[in-house]
Amino acid sequence: MEIRELRYFLAVAREENITRAAQSLHIAQPSLSKQLMELEKKLDKQLLIRGKKKITLTEEGAILRKRAEEIVELVEKTEHEISYDFEELSGDIYIGGSASETILSVAADLRREYPGVRFHFYSGDAQDVSERLNHGSLDFAVMLEPVDNIKYEFVSLPDCSQWGVLMNKSDALAAKKALTNEDIKSIPLIMHQRIGLQNEIAHWAGTSTESLNIAATYNVVHGSPIPFVKHGLGYFLTARYLLAPELDTDVCFLPLEPELPTRLALVWKKHAVFSKVAEAFYGRICNR
Predict the structure, then answer these.
(1) Which of 41, 214, 269, 283 has the least C-beta neighbours within 10 A?
(2) Are 254 and 147 in contact, with CB atoms under 8 Å apart?
(3) How far apart are the first and last CA of the chain?
(4) Which residue in 45, 47, 46 sits closest to 62, CA to CA?
């Protein structure tokens, strides 16, 4: 497959219409239709369902769309890195995960000195971020320690937070200053679906993951997790840094006791080749 073919396919997937896609690409409609048919023939798969009102993707087409977006993004990223004039530091840095205070502070400092530097932050679950890091569409990711040091290199960040539980203030447990392992074993929990994290919490509580009362799991929470708590689904287990500094007056955050600290790390793929601007960012992180 050629990059041109993938761009053509993505335009049709986006517009859901051959005519509009051809107009956006500035090519003739018959030429675009021919290119798409040749792509389907090359892959020996039907990628598009050509309806009367719009075009939709087949299951194979949806798979190709996801991979094509990653491939085109990586190609464009590489083209930009090669074309920049590095006498004046400029370029793009792609970071996945939750941006910590250290990441944002270093990013702001770098941009003040070099306005040509641009940062792109990508949010997603751990699997999605890891996949993009592996494919090279992300330069770095911010992850919770421990980090898989077989696949990745990393540097620990000074950002530190505490694990605890978000709950309703009207709850009887809210009168306590902290929650113990016995408390955690007795309440319905809402927690991240990451198995490693669930195991860490279970180990801290002195029990097995299967013995925890997990009412719900999530991969990414868009917006505040407070509605989960207010509706009585369970107690939301989270790190304090992931919550807003000022909480809703109806809820409170109680840390775990004994403390269970969490550390963040800046992570990159092993044997990755940094662009000059990514290398400059990495150097400043290490000097913090």
Answers:
(1) 41
(2) no
(3) 44
(4) 47
Residue 118 is encoded by which pair of tokens? 């641009």
Structural tokens at position 41:
């023939």
Instruction: Tell me the DSSP string of 119-142.
Output: EEEE---HHHHHHHHHHTS-SEEE
Residue in the structure block whose two tokens are 């400043």: 284
Residue 108 in tokens: 């702001």
Which pLDDT belongs to residue 87?
A: 58
Residues belonging to the chain: 288
CA nearest to 6, candidates 96, 99, 70? 70
Is residue 181 within 8 A of residue 113, CB to CB? The reply is no
Indicate whether 129 pLDDT > 70: yes
Q: Domains of the chain (ranges plus CATH)?
A: 3-76 (1.10.10.10), 80-157+264-286 (3.40.190.10), 160-261 (3.40.190.10)
Annotate 202-231 with DSSP letters as a single string.
Answer: HHHHTS-GGGS-EEEEES---S-SHHHHHT
* Tens digits of residue pLDDT in 182-231: 999 999 999 998 888 899 999 999 999 999 999 999 988 878 899 999 99
